[in-house]
Prior knowledge:
This protein is α/β, with parallel strands linked by helices. The chain has two domains: 6-111 and 264-338, 3-Layer(bba) Sandwich (FAD/NAD(P)-binding domain); 117-262, FAD/NAD(P)-binding domain (3-Layer(bba) Sandwich). It is built from twelve helices and 25 strands. The strands form eight sheets. It has a five-stranded parallel beta sheet with strand order 5-2-1-9-21, covered by helices on one side. Strands 11-18-12-13-14 form a five-stranded parallel beta sheet. The chain has a three-stranded antiparallel beta sheet with strand order 6-7-8, with no helix packed on it. Helix 1 packs parallel to helix 9 (320-338) and helix 5 (129-148) packs antiparallel against helix 6 (152-159). It is globular, with a radius of gyration of 23 Å.
Amino acid sequence: xxxxxxxxxxxxxxxxxxxxxxxxxxxxxxxxxxxxxxxxxxxxxxxxxxxxxxxxxxxxxxxxxxxxxxxxxxxxxxxxxxxxxxxxxxxxxxxxxxxxxxxxxxxxxxxxxxxxxxxxxxxxxxxxxxxxxxxxxxxxxxxxxxxxxxxxxxxxxxxxxxxxxxxxxxxxxxxxxxxxxxxxxxxxxxxxxxxxxxxxxxxxxxxxxxxxxxxxxxxxxxxxxxxxxxxxxxxxxxxxxxxxxxxxxxxxxxxxxxxxxxxxxxxxxxxxxxxxxxxxxxxxxxxxxxxxxxxxxxxxxxxxxxxxxxxxxxxxxxxxxxxxxxxxxxxxxxxxxxxxxxxxxxxxxxxxxxxxxxxxxxxxxxxxxxxxxxxxxxxxxxxxxxxxxxxxxxxxxxxxxxxxxxxxxxxxxxxxxxxxxxxxxxxxxxxxxxxxxx
Length: 438
């Protein structure tokens, strides 16, 4: 007797969700629906290069519906998750209700502001493509404002850039902005003497790149200092109001650009049992990534908290590799269950970590090896091209990098933003068009 097709609903089209789909969609016993608030997947590790006008958003993004072409057991539902109903096997989104036999939560994380409401309201996060484009516009507008004013205090406020968070994102942003100041700002903004002297990298920990090796930490510090970045460690950002960053040690930095890369928290999922929510709002799962106190709900990637792996008793790091391996393993386990076989527990294979610091400078920590300099930089480039979806994306990104690196002059510094009056003026035209077509 033929088995009924199982409905698998995946919420979140990031690393975990997409890798689960790639493996599971090959088995026609599953009908998969991806739910995401965006209509595209994107590559978060390169968001900072979009934010610094080094690459285009299209280099690191890909439409879901294009990805699902000719996949008869795949569907896309654009919407934001509002609630899970475990008893009814349904989820509620802002665009409708979706039924499931298996539910997979892979929504990732959002910025954690640690209860600082002024920071949340005024800082610039780096979690989405929208965030990256907003930051790019903000940085470019600030430089234009700095050129126009003769008030030194105002000029300083527009030129100062504070990055909160000394992890890979913060370090990579600092390095890229320092390169921007050295190679581009001096040519295009002769009125600005030295953009690098206005760049601050602040971290509450004792060293940059906290999770990485001491060698990586020292190399990152050495290169960034050489580039002119002002590094402040062992100090947290405590507040940000009236264009002033307040540090825990009493110092203040006038700026209207505080980039927030200082921590994440898992996205909330209303409707799950309270017993399934752990620290940092991460969802507690067993060795098969099944959510605690549920029967057919799974959580993957940064959103999950799995303590069954003996080498990681406090949970896995919130890294792309964990999410990728989670997706692969759950696909294999759902297929095993469909074959009436026992699921296998997840064991994380740590492949190391890396961070780019500046042009031709990077650090790579492998389980037993350490690389730095040009070799590490080249490995970083290669590793970050492989996961991109679409051959065209890989070629476009490789060409963009090649051209930008040899010329020191990427040409994406466009300030593109809708003006409020344009949006308002467009409303009557949209309404009129609706009436004509009704």
